[in-house]
Protein 1
Amino acid sequence: MFRKSTGQTPHQFVLRQKLERAKAMLRAPDARVLDVAVACGFKTQPALCTGLSWRLGVSPTEYRQDLVGSEDAPLVDS
């Protein structure tokens, strides 16, 4: 029933929620990756790294660097 209503297995749904929370927490420049992993329910930092790499194709550090890079990019008027 869960899969029919959400299109995902319960495990996929929970993992997606954990990763979304981790992404939000990684936006804080002073947040340590280990602290984010534990706060989001991952048993280890590598578990978060694996999940984020699987979902986004980047590590938590690369994700954060991409955010900083996009914030520093100049705005272009159309």
Note: Residues 73-78 have pLDDT under 50 and may be disordered.
Protein 2
Amino acid sequence: MITRRKAVRLLGAASAGAWVAATQLGLNLVIEPNASAARHNVTPRLAPGAPMSAERISLIEAFKKQSEGLETKFEARSLKSDWTMPYRLFRPSTNKKAPLVLYLHGSGGLGDDNLKQLGLGNIFGTRLWLLPENQKHHPCYVVAPQTDRGWCLYDPTQEENGRAKVLPGFGDGARLAVQIVDALRREFAIDERRIYVTGQSMGGAGVWNVITYRPQLFAGAVICCGSVSTEDGTGSASTPLWNFHGHSDQTVPVSVSRDRIAARRKAGGSPLYTEYAGVDHNVWEWAYTEPNLVKWMFSQRRD
């Protein structure tokens, strides 16, 4: 019987058939960068248990309970630019310079009520950084803007697979989100070397977009099941990045992440990639409850 350790090792250069075989074993698929690039960027140890095991699901349920009420710690703000973009900001209890985390919501957060980007599936990506234990060891600012038109550049007059066609270029939503970050950098004592970006689904595509068009801004990126866009994964290839996807995703095919990661490695990057067997589109529930994710992200620093 193949062991989890051996399966993970073999998958480093796996064929499509090997990927399928491994997921049938219920494994977390951890595909490391090439050995030469991996020395300084190896995937941290993942939570124990197969993705759909009771042991693993318990982490997700515990997070929901522990994070209840943290959304009230965000203050409501807005940025007036081409249009008014609402956003929520959390400020840490420290007088020292602190990192900043930019969170880009999924399509469930679309709107202008300055609330939905903190609710539904977005609770994981917005509340994780506010947990008392994380603020104790990694005090940080967290900003969660809300877009009513997506993060990438879209043409609403054209459809592609039943959705507005994605165009190349810096997305309108992503551009204003960066304007918010730039404004906060001027207002607060933010550590310029430790600005991070994360997002899920539509917001994951937004992360690919924003690191491509503002390559010198972010020290690291965490992406969950980023949806289709014109960004192929090669933008800002040297930026540390950890990408997550559910093997059974029925909304964004897992091949979208696989292709981007392969292209990024070909371009000289060393991204981390974790794929969960049996997990659908809500992969963020597994990703943001990985015990070592927070430590990994805050260990990244921009030169």
Note: The radius of gyration is 18 Å.
Protein 3
Amino acid sequence: MTNPDIEIATPEGVFEASAAGPEDGPLVLLLHGFPQTRHTWRELLPALGQAGFRAVAPDQRGYSPRIRPANVSDYAPDRLVADVLDLAAALGADGFHLIGHDWGGQVARLTTAHHSERVLSLSVLSRPHPAAFARSFDLDPQQLSRSAHHERFVRPEATDELRNENFRDLRIGLAAIGIPAPDVDAYLEVLAERSALDAALNWYRAAAQVDGLRTIDCPDVRVPTLYVWGDSDSSVGRVAASLTADHVKGPYTFLEVPGSGHFLTDDGGGPVVIKAVIAHLNPGQRGHGAPSADQGRRPRS
């Protein structure tokens, strides 16, 4: 992993982040999932910058070493949402675009659902709306097995199991779903310290303690939303992906990527994601009013 382009100080700690684009451009926050890091946005980030946006991709809570609390409760969903608002405030933005994948997609959906007045648009890779995900367990016989890793990861011993033999099982699993070895190395470099991996797994543990997968409270989303799902996703089935439409009340685009799986930015789906996201954020193509260079931003103090 390369050194961070910027460091973002918040009341909770310092996030390491990569950034692209003009500092006065509309802010786009990109939130990664597990076991990925900001490295997952290595192609989308510069594309957004070239399109005139201020794109910022942090290593999230637990992944950034200076915001890595030890308590499971410090990774509860409401705390992760608060991080997004803290990051936006630190970057001088009242309104911002959100992009998320996997757990980052979950946090992006929760942030948007509860703070729609702050979010200009939402783009999510792989992760369905939480309510759709919860409903899918009763409607899709395969979803429980697809999500079995959630139960494995909440166990205290999961940290050491995953670290065994230089992440042997995790490396095999990621390679099997199409993630190139250099990218696996980049992700696991960040998680090499035991405390980092334990913190990353605390996202699963905290969610299980608060709501689990089936009962999490999440209102419908009411901002322009793009949902990109790979039809070979081994974690999220078609039922959960399709049900998400029921929980979006604003303009909605669902894009299915044939042949791609859960890790769209790594398994060949990246160019499709870039094109779709740029079109979604570009007001001329999206059909909504154009954000000015300073829309959603306030002057730096």
Note: The longest helix spans residues 158-176.
